[in-house]
Design a protein that fits this description.
A: about 210 residues; eubacterium ventriosum atcc fold; 3-stranded mixed beta sheet; 7 helices; about 45% helix; B: about 140 residues; mainly alpha; transmembrane (chain B); SpoVAB (chain B)
């Protein structure tokens, strides 16, 4: 019986170590409902301790596993040829100490950096000049200008990142979220291209697969 | 004499051209204006924003090169300072964003979920560092 089935690999899958991966976990399938059900539970791979952080499954390995059980099924693949699966090592909570440490590091660094920047561009002289420009008076320390300036500094950064203490100004993704997304995508792309498919270790590159028909 | 004057005009004009285009390129690369447009949903006012940047730059350069004095009350420096600070803050934020600081850092220390905590650390650091600078540091 000839059945046409379409398959699309998911991206951005996360699993726990020791978890078994079935076809339904890594791909979307489209086709006749009765023929899909047994396909969904085709076992693909078990995540082991040695898999560290990422596992790459490529489409040929997946097809090989499927055809071993259902040789007569014809699958058309839509989309990417491999999927990068992230292994989330048991979520050990970041220790509060670590958080405080990193926080303090960034805090101090930011404070130092802004002071360096101010000295670098002679911000004080500019502020004094600006004060004179507006009021006509001289001031060694125009705090009336400088305190709002400092507050505005923080406001501007929050505005740019679209976060007011976790509350959104609007629903569009912030540049930071887009940047995080791109960074994750880059890692996945790199891994997909460099990491060998861990699930297909018996399948040596120059040798024929023991399961393949020719 | 006339030749010298013409030459001076030429140098001034070309210098201004280079600096001005550099400033615009800098602001464009950092994407501050698109960001503000996106936040305020004012796509139609882009031309007005361009004019704002240009007139601001021109007035700023005239004010630094010549002694211009206004006679406004000192309270008026509060909105000026606030706006100046917000602009520098956006510059700083855009710069860290261009340099990919947060995604890398958050991933390294395993705090992708708490990335906002890291951002707030930098924000508060900037505010307090700046306040410290103006109130105490400059007196030394």
């Amino acid at each position: 019986m000839h059945q046409q089935i379409y398959m699309q690999l998911y991206t951005g899958i996360t699993v726990q170590p020791g978890q078994d991966l079935y076809l339904k976990d890594v791909a979307r399938l489209e086709g006749e409902a009765e023929s899909l059900r047994p396909l969904m539970s085709v076992h693909l791979y078990s995540i082991s301790r040695t898999d560290k952080t990422h596992v790459v499954l490529d489409i040929l390995t997946i097809l090989q596993k499927i055809h071993k059980q259902f040789p007569e099924i014809d699958i058309t693949v839509v989309g990417p040829e491999q999927t990068v699966i992230e292994v989330t090592i048991e979520k050990k909570l970041i220790s509060p100490l670590m958080l405080v440490l990193v926080w303090f590091l960034l805090f101090t660094g930011a404070a130092l950096a802004i002071m360096n920047f101010h000295e670098d561009v002679s911000m004080l002289a500019v502020h004094q000049k600006l004060y004179t420009l507006v009021t006509g008076k001289q001031s060694e320390q125009p705090l009336l200008l400088q305190v709002p300036y400092s507050i505005g500094l923080g406001l501007g950064m929050i505005l740019f990142f679209n976060h007011v203490f976790k509350k959104r100004i609007n629903e569009e993704p912030s540049p930071l979220e887009i940047e995080m997304f791109h960074y994750k995508k880059d890692i996945e792309e790199y891994l997909a291209d460099t990491e060998s498919d861990r699930s297909s270790k018996p399948w040596q590159s120059k040798l024929y697969s023991p399961y393949s028909s020719d | 004499m006339a030749v010298e004057a013409l030459f001076a005009i030429f140098i001034g004009l070309s210098g201004g051209l280079a600096v001005g285009s550099g400033l615009v390129a800098f602001i464009t690369v950092l994407g501050i204006i698109p960001r503000l447009v996106q936040l305020t949903k004012t796509q139609k006012a882009i031309q007005a924003y361009e004019i704002a940047v240009i007139t601001g730059a021109v007035i700023g350069s005239i004010a630094t090169l010549h002694d211009i004095k206004g006679t406004f009350p000192a309270v008026l420096t509060i909105p000026v300072g606030l706006a100046a600070g917000m602009f520098v803050g956006m510059l700083a934020a855009a710069l860290t964003e261009v340099l990919n600081v947060f995604p890398i850092l958050a991933r390294r220390v395993g705090m992708e979920k708490n990335i906002i905590v890291l951002v707030m650390a930098i924000v508060f650091g900037k505010i307090l560092g700046s306040l410290f600078h103006w109130i105490f540091f400059v007196k030394f």
